[in-house]
Every structure is written in C-alpha cells, then in structure tokens.
Amino acid sequence: MKRFKSARHLQRFVSVHDPIANLFNVPRHGIPSTHHRELQATDMQACAKSRHAE
User: Fold this and answer.
1) Helices 33-53 and 7-24 meet at what angle, rounded to 10?
2) Are the C-beta atoms of 23 and 48 separated by less than 8 Å?
3) How far apart are CA 15 and CA 13, in angstroms?
4) Which residues, other chains included, contact 26 with Cβ-Cβ below 8 Å and sequence gap of 6+?
5) H/E element holding 48?
6) Model confidence pLDDT, tens digit, residues 5-49
7) Which end of the chain has fewer CB atoms within 10 angstroms, the N or the C?
8) Residue (of 29, 5, 19, 8) closest to 50 by Cα position
C-alpha cells in the first residue's frame, strides 16, 4: 500500500483491476500451449474492441 495515498484509493484501484486481471488469468495446467495462445488472442481482441468502442 506504499504507492496509494489511502486505503480508499487502493480499494478503488483493486475494484477496477481485479475484473480485468481475471480476463487474462487463464490457468495453464491442463491445456495445450496452442489452445492457451488462442485464448490469449481472443482476450486481446476483445480488449482492443472495448477500447475502440469508447
């Protein structure tokens, strides 16, 4: 919490960061690397579309 001015600022950051981080956090065990790359590419495309929609 050293970089945040208060616990409130930290909470605001975490409330926005967690849903976004969960999009890109795919467990690697149990899936082939090719499938993992496909999932990453799909997530990046969705992220790019959402940025352009704003």
Assistant:
1) 130
2) no
3) 6
4) 36, 39, 40
5) helix 33-53
6) 888 888 888 787 777 777 777 677 778 889 888 988 988 888 888
7) C
8) 19
DSSP 8-state code for residue 41: H
Judge whether 26 and 36 are in contact, CB under 8 Å.
yes
DSSP one-letter string for 6-41: SHHHHHHHHHHHHHHHHHH----TTS-HHHHHHHHH
Q: Record the tokens describing residue 11, joined without a space.
A: 């909470």
pLDDT at 2: 65
CA nearest 20: which of 50, 9, 35, 6?
50
- Residue 31, sorted as left (phi over 0), alpha (psi -120 to 50) or beta, turns out to be beta
pTM (2 d.p.): 0.48
